[in-house]
Write a structure and sequence with these properties.
This protein has about 150 residues and is an alpha/beta fold. It has a single domain, classed as Metal-dependent hydrolases (TIM Barrel, Alpha-Beta Barrel), CATH 3.20.20.140. About 45% of the residues lie in helices and about 10% in strands. The protein has 6 helices and 4 strands; from the N terminus they run αβαβαβαβαα. A 4-stranded parallel beta sheet has the order 1-2-3-4, with helices on both faces. The longest helix has 16 residues. The radius of gyration is 15 Å and the shape is globular. About 35% of the residues are buried.
């Protein structure tokens, strides 16, 4: 993991991190390596609000998976409410973590709209705002040469 962070720094590229049951170790290494200089994303975020804020302070985006649609995902709901939309990305984590109403079935990329809808409901903002802002965030993070179409 440390080598991945160092390679990203050397190449001036963002990193994509899936931290699973290693929050303390991940945060320690991100701080030691000063890994946020070129940005990155905590994919399939499962930490708490304090961890999310620290990640943002280090220059990372927080990516919200389909579990945000689960009614018992209270910690993730708190994170979504606390983190400004300008620091969020959305994802499906296909083929896993399928959002409601398809929970229990194979996840599909088209289900990302349910993640956006859940975030919109939690933040009490329009769906279109979530869709356009998170798309713009991804374009900015990865330096993509495209415009936001506004289509969902």
């Amino acid at each position: 993991f440390r080598s991945q962070l160092q390679l990203a720094q050397a190449l001036k590229l963002p990193v994509v991190i899936h931290d699973r049951e290693a929050h303390r170790e991940t945060m320690q290494m991100l701080q030691e390596e000063r890994s946020g200089e070129y940005g990155g994303v905590l994919h399939c975020f499962s930490g708490d609000t304090a961890m999310a804020r620290t990640c943002i302070d280090l220059g990372f985006f927080i990516s919200i998976p389909g579990t945000v649609t689960f009614k018992n995902a209270t910690r993730l709901h708190e994170v979504v409410r606390a983190v400004p939309l300008e620091h969020l990305l959305i994802e499906t984590d296909c083929p896993f973590l399928t959002p409601v109403p398809f929970r229990g079935k194979r996840n599909e990329p088209s289900y990302v709209r349910y993640v956006a809808a859940a975030i919109a409901a939690l933040k009490n903002i329009p769906f279109e705002t979530v869709a356009s802002t998170t798309t713009a965030n991804a374009v900015r993070l990865f330096g993509l040469p495209c415009r936001v179409s506004g289509k969902t």
